[in-house]
Specification:
The complex is a heterodimer. Chain A is mainly α. Chain A is 81% helix and 1% strand. Chain A is built from 11 helices and 1 strand; from the N terminus they run αβαααααααααα. Chain A is elongated, with a radius of gyration of 20 Å. In chain B, the strands form 2 sheets. In chain B, strands 6-8-9-3-10 form a 5-stranded parallel beta sheet, sandwiched between helices. A 4-stranded antiparallel beta sheet of chain B has the order 2-1-4-5, with helices on one face. In chain B, α7 links the parallel β8 and β9. Chain B is built from 7 helices and 10 strands. Chain B starts with a helix and ends with a strand. Classes of the chains: A mainly alpha, B alpha/beta. At the A-B interface, α1, β1, α2, α5 and α6 of A face α3, α4, β7 and α5 of B. β1 of chain A pairs antiparallel with β7 of chain B.
Chain lengths: 237, 215
């Protein structure tokens, strides 16, 4: 029992950044050990997009016209499908309580969890999206625009989604309620995300849409962690 | 004279606490004060409100009346200061099935704002009989072993207030002895401990033991 006191006095106090990184690494590590966490949403995304050419026929003009909407709606649904993993597992094993009891600001720790969620379920969508763009006959110059719109848009989906999960994590049947709660909130992202692609396809400037999406993203980064942290306190209280 | 008073002043004060769940009054008028080195054991049957009281004390749930003060400050308004000195272990072990006990302990201590060396963490797991399982994912461990992995935090904690919900459930005799000796050591160092249990606990090594009975 003697080694205990000496070991603890050597321990250095951590900064909030250290703890942010620790939470982020933990969640990514857990996701890597349970590969279904990032493979399932990705497969879902791919399959939904592939269903459209099968259902609508292979007319290239028609596919190009529906491509922005199809890709964005599929991305939205894939993110919703994966959202529960942000807090559900931690709620069930009790580590969510420990997160709330940490002396560090809960919103910062929640932001770390959201960032981990985006790395695991948003980033893969972004990476595979050019292939799906080609499948739906999007012109080559639109593919970078597609990726950039997903880069700005999918983090907003994770951030807003965290609020929905935090509100419903204590409910037994939160699974159905959450998409109903969230999908209306996703409408602005959908409008700007598809808008930028339509503009790019028809050769019009895209900057305005990107500015609007960047504004949405900064707003969500600033406010969503605070709202999720408050919602978690209510859900667990 | 003043110094003596400061030492004996209660660390944790609970005034007239009440808690309702739904329409049911779980408890009311709960008041006590605990000084350094004190241990409070909360006893009572299932559903009598032990867990609710502990969650209020840890600041996880709001109380319906009354106040909890730590070092004279209301915990609701001084959360970071209070949280830095609190160790709460709920009835769930808090060990993620995909993390090893060592990773769990590393993460749990970091969340509390400390980074003990891996040797210290291994030693703590060893004390709880998990030295062979430090690198086994927790989902491969038994219920009692997961529980031990959660409790190993007691040995690498520098929190002054321990709030433990049923720490002895699912533990075998050596595991219980380990928790009991950790409690004794904690109180000897001037810490405060609150635990709920419906089992007999050997607390002979602790001088200042209070019992609170829920009906």
């Amino acid at each position: 029992m003697t080694s205990r006191t000496s070991d603890l006095s050597e321990a250095a106090p951590l900064t909030v950044l250290d703890v942010f990184v620790a939470v982020l690494r933990r969640d990514v590590l857990i996701a890597c050990r349970r590969s279904s966490e990032f493979v399932n949403p990705l497969m879902f995304f791919v399959i939904i997009v592939v269903l459209f050419p099968l259902a609508l026929g292979s007319d290239p003009v028609q596919l190009r016209a529906v491509a922005p909407g199809v890709i964005w709606v599929a991305a939205l649904l894939a993110v919703v499908l994966s959202l529960e993993t942000i807090f559900r597992g931690d709620f069930e094993d009790g580590s969510l309580e420990q997160l709330l009891l940490s002396p560090f600001p809960t919103s910062v720790l929640v932001l770390a969890k959201i960032a981990a969620h985006w790395l695991v379920s948003g980033l893969p969508l972004l990476i595979i999206s050019p292939l799906l763009g080609i499948l739906l006959n999007l012109p080559a110059h639109v593919l970078p625009v597609l990726m950039f719109s997903l880069l700005l848009g999918t983090p907003v989906l994770s951030l807003l989604g965290a609020i929905g999960v935090a509100l419903t994590v204590g409910l037994r049947r939160g699974g159905v309620l959450m998409p109903l709660l969230l999908l209306p909130l996703y409408v602005p992202v959908l409008i700007f995300g598809t808008g930028v692609l339509h503009s790019a396809v028809s050769g019009m400037p895209v900057a305005a849409h990107f500015y609007a999406m960047a504004a949405l993203l900064s707003l969500a980064i600033g406010l969503a962690p605070l709202a999720s942290a408050a919602a978690l306190r209510v859900s667990l209280g | 004279m003043q110094a003596v008073e400061a030492v004996n002043a209660p660390l944790l004060e609970v005034c007239d606490l009440a808690c309702e769940r739904g329409d049911r009054l779980l408890f009311e008028g709960v008041s006590f004060a605990l000084a350094a080195g004190a241990l409070l054991q909360i006893e009572g049957p299932n559903g009598s409100g032990k867990t609710s009281l502990l969650r209020v004390l840890a600041g996880l749930s709001p109380s319906d009346a009354g106040e909890v003060r730590w070092r004279g400050l209301a915990i609701g308004r001084h959360r970071p200061e209070f949280a830095a000195e609190l160790l709460y272990l709920g009835h769930l072990p808090g060990v993620h099935p995909n993390l090893t006990p060592l990773e769990h302990l590393r993460m749990a201590t970091r969340l509390g704002g400390w980074k003990p060396s891996d040797d210290a963490l291994r030693w703590a797991l060893g004390e709880f009989g998990l030295s062979e399982y430090t690198l086994t994912p927790s989902r491969a461990l038994s219920e009692g072993q997961r529980r031990r992995a959660g409790l190993a935090r007691l040995l690498v904690s520098n929190a002054a207030l321990w709030v433990l919900d049923e720490p002895l459930s699912a533990l075998d005799v050596p595991g219980r002895a380990c928790v009991e000796s950790a409690l004794a050591q904690h109180c000897r160092r001037g810490g405060v401990a609150i635990l709920s249990t419906h089992q007999a606990v050997d607390l002979d090594n602790i001088d200042d033991v209070t019992h609170l009975r829920f009906e």
